[in-house]
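Structure first, sequence second, as always.
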């Protein structure tokens, strides 16, 4: 029984050590940061557009 159990344990533990790694945390952070930057840019553009619209309405 021990002769069978030991190789089985080795294969199971070996598979856990060679399991695929999750996605790199730096790339996750970079993708989140780029999404935040894009949303901030959109917000700024909206504000600028609204200001221009308000100025045009005042001028008319």
């Amino acid at each position: 029984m021990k002769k069978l159990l030991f190789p089985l344990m080795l294969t199971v533990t070996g598979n856990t050590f060679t399991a695929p790694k999750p996605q790199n945390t730096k790339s996750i952070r970079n993708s989140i940061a780029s999404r935040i930057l894009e949303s901030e840019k959109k917000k700024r553009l909206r504000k600028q557009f609204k200001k221009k619209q308000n100025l045009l309405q005042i001028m008319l």
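Margin note: The chain has a mean pLDDT of 78.
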